[in-house]
Write a structure and sequence with these properties.
Elements (H helix, E strand, L loop, with lengths): L5 E6 L19 H13 L4 E4 L7 E2 L2 E2 L10 H8 L7 E7 L5 H15 L3 E6 L4 H4 L10 H19 L22 E5 L4 E5 L11 E4 L4 H10 L2 E4 L4 H13 L12 E6 L1 E3 L3 H15 L2 H12 L24 E2 L8 H15 L3 H8 L5 E3 L1 H13 L5 E4 L9 H13 L12 H4 L7
Parallel strand pairs: 1-2, 1-15, 2-5, 5-6, 6-9, 9-10, 10-11, 11-15, 12-14
Antiparallel strand pairs: 3-4, 3-13, 7-8
Amino acid sequence: MTKQIHLAAHFPGVNNTTVWSDPRSGSQIDFDSFKHLAQTAERGKFDFFFLAEGLRLREMKGRIHDLDVVGRPESLTVLSALSAVTTHLGLAATVNSTFNEPYEVARRLASLDHLSGGRAAWNVVTSWDAFTGENFRRGGYLAEADRYTRAREFLQTARELWDSWASDALPRSEGRFVRPGGIGFFEHTGQHFDIRGRFDVPRPPQGNPVIIQAGDSEEGREFAASSADVIFSRHSKLEEGRTFYRDVKRRLEKYGRTADDLKILPAVTYVLGDTQEEAEERAAEIRRAQVGPQTAILFLEAIWGRDLSGYDPDGPLPDIEPDLETDVSKGRAQFRRDRAETAAKWRALAEEKNLSIRELVIETAAPQTFVGTARSVAEEIDLFVQTDAADGFIFVPHLTPGGLDDLVDKVVPLLQEKGVFRADYTGPTLRHHLGLKELP
């Protein structure tokens, strides 16, 4: 049976993908940039538009990473504004479960679902580091072993709040209600939350907003299998994707769920050209722009645990060994467990290919996923989905605000011709776009 492809767009904030130097690059914080990207995604009939969020900018020795976005507005506020200039596009936000509270988050997401007519989604994430925790009153950080226990209880509590309204307790225009007994009473006592009262926003149009989860650990996979509607996956290579897809889908049965109840959507990038050679040349230019001299040194310092600012990014790797007891990086989690192993692999690769520091970082950082002509990229997207490496993709453009334009104008029509992607929206809610069960 031919599967239908799901597409979404991601506008990151803390990242190393944005190419500031491109003359087509515009503002990363003006509402018009968000509006252009969202309306382009809706023109392409995408399922949803997804905003990432970092609660603290990444730093290295006090220097903010040169591709991170400074001054980014808060995501749910932006999406609420976008709900007025879109009609069908889903609106997804990353909201942290470590440094927020269930009542506040549930209220804001229910409000977005009402404002948009049932198009809200929540990417549930956790944080591990004390650097981010410094921004919050309790300070410090949540022990890594407790991150997912809090996230599970956080989501459970939010759902209790959304479900606390009886289905027939609907607001009247004068602000009173049909059945006062059905209005929002909740009481939750657990390891992380002990709250009770009345939830003051009616049940969302979707019942619950769509839940997205991005964890790839064992705990993250189980959390997604038990509770999520979408996984924001990092597995964008064909065989890796198939392995991840099988592993997560097999976990669903023990939670009374089917394969259709959870969509796996890897984060991907793309570069188009009139020929394969032209696309590959563009991709190489983009990668070099994404890994400038400062970024290359910062990536290396994150592994070496040393100040390497005196080294030439276009020269060889340092001849000193990593300091595994020190972490000079702030706000990064990628290398905290396996720095020694990563350093050994990087040194071997640099020696094998005679790579400079910058060339090594370009080689090891994630390359563009789909590189080619519009037709070859459309064929590759379809191959991933039809062979169960994914249910679709979340595209991360390297340009703002026009980074989706050629994908929508050149690739989407080819997928529509193949009959594997919708020609138009057929329902009003994000849950409908994703083919998820409607909640009672």
